[in-house]
Amino acid sequence: MAKRIVTVFGGSGFVGRHLVRHLAAEGATVRVAVRDPEDARYLKILGEVGQIVPFAADVRKEETLAAAVEGADSVVNLVGILWEWGMHNFNTVHAEGAANVAKAAKAAGVSKLVQISAIGVAENSESRYAQTKAAGEAAVRAEFPGATIIRPSVIFGPEDHFFNYFAGLARFTWIMPVFGCPAMPILKWFTDDALLDIDFYGDGGTKFQPVYVDDVAAAIVNALAADDAVGETYELGGPTIYSSVEIMKLMAKMIGRKRLLVPIPFWYLAIWGWVLQKIPAPLLTYDQVKLLETDNVVSEGAKTMADLGVSATPAEAILPAYLSRFKKVGHETAPST
After folding, report:
1. Residue 33 three-state SS
2. Would 333 be classed as within a structural domain?
3. pLDDT per 10-residue tile (average), the chain, 337 residues
4. Are residues 109 and 248 part of one domain?
């Protein structure tokens, strides 16, 4: 990777900061292409003087991309949004924006392009997020057939908005939601353990396969270096698949707080999503609920991180370090209810 120039669109975000660090460690010159270069200045300390260079670029505006990719050997597009606001809608960012990056990369003679998508994307999905991510993949491949597509599951790490969000919520409430459970408990009579067994969670709700952010960054770096990754699609997931109830139990255990896990059916969650999406930076949207209705796990037969030479890191090995700030003072880690 030495002396190579890599342009990373969206490099100031959660995954971007880890990817930039990995690329700098490999000796690459990294251009961090973001709408406001001031947002990326903090990344300059991750490399030598002049090694990490913030660039002004907006994937929605083709005319701003040429300078960022000129002379670059490789390009990575990390840009994505979780909800729509103003001119930032799913189609302009995920589909048109991805197409613009691919066009600019092709015009500049870039040799490698990596497009970051997501597990579960599909043109026929009920989620606009998933629809437009799929459209973005298709647009990138149309413009740059040799592009490598990487689809991560839920990404965790010190700055994530997944485990940190629920751990923060657990400090203020005794009740934690379990998404996608039955609306009514399932009654099972005359089981081996009891006359009546009441099942509140069914199959445990939506399935997730959380993947460590450093593993995602390493997989991207390896994809840029591997000729056999050209034109391929990879799905990245951690070593363990968790149901929604298992995720909540794991989080509660890591912060040493016992919490009541309440099953929430999708129809009830959809109502709240529709209401909450009306406010800026919503905690939940209707589109996110539709996305939750599909398990977020690696597809059978898909190429994975292992094919890129990366071993998946267990969540249990990483979570204690950065969730420790959510622990109750004076309490050690305790099992959840």
Report:
1. strand
2. no
3. 84 96 96 95 94 96 96 97 86 97 98 97 94 97 98 97 93 90 66 63 90 98 96 98 96 93 91 90 91 95 97 97 86 44
4. no
